[in-house]
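hey m, so remember when u said the tokens were messed up on ur end? i reran from scratch. heres the input so u can diff it against urs
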Amino acid sequence: MRIAIHHRPNSNSSLWIKYCQKHNIQFKLVDAYANDILNQIADCDAFMWHFHYKIYKDNLFAKQLLYAIKEKTGKTIYPDFDTCWHYDDKIGQKYFLQALDIPIVPTYIFYTKKDALNWIRDTTFPKVFKLRSGEDSKNVRLVKSYFQAKRLIRKSFGSGFQKNSHFVRIKERWIQYRNGECTLKWFLKGIMTLYPFKERFKKEELGYIYFQDFIPNNKYDIRVFVVGNRAVAVKRINRQNDFRASGSGNMIFEKNQIDEKYIRAAFSLNKKLKMQSVTFDFLLNNDGHILLSEFSYNCGPKNSDKYPGYWTDDLQWHDCNEFNVSDWIIENIIKGI
């Protein structure tokens, strides 16, 4: 058995390599961007690539390459089609979850300016505006009035939105610096970098508008990571004077802070989604029912030592702070070969 791994520093691939070295698993470092990638993996049984939405060239072909490898060679891949086809695509996720009759935060998408304007005349506010792609709440806004929604609609069907504008990047870095999540040097570097070269390739988001209902009285969300029959969870407290939990840096890891119903819901949902790894973000509606806000294959806390343990799909708790979610991923790949 040999596993082909595309290595990117500071990604899951570093942990997969360590796992293979520790357990004497044969592996081969390959270059997914090379023209001969199919030849490179020819003598391997599996191909693993932790691709990321922030890397422009990954978005050009990662899903297509992985699908081609699986369908035409029969090799085990990570992530597979069920796991990643909807990655960083909130529109695709919306239709997929509705088709599976999964409770989600009510979502409204319009593809013409006329339809969007007609809708906001009759709806209530506030609403939450999002872009199709992007994580970490960078492209999420609370829309408090008809006039604010109208401005967003005009821009959506006009000049469009930058996925990672300089202003938004500085604002997010300031929040992270204020919360002690980054150094002053890192924050100042973001100010000095006015127009990163890689952002030249990112097109504006336009031609649609995406709104969700605002669910009040949520002071936190619950994030659950599921890999196979194991899961970990964290309570993420909202940012100060903000409705968003992502990026707050204020997280609670204790088991008694996580209602078991979120774990049950996560395992149940993934039986429908059939994802090799998944991160669920849950909210509660006004009636106390669980709603799925977002999900992503990009799974795994990097600071696993902060988690006191994990659940298995029989809802049994296991005390343990020496585990790694990335290890679970490669263990399941090995089992599937």
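this time it looks ok to me. The chain has a mean pLDDT of 89. if urs says something different then somethings off w ur setup not the seq
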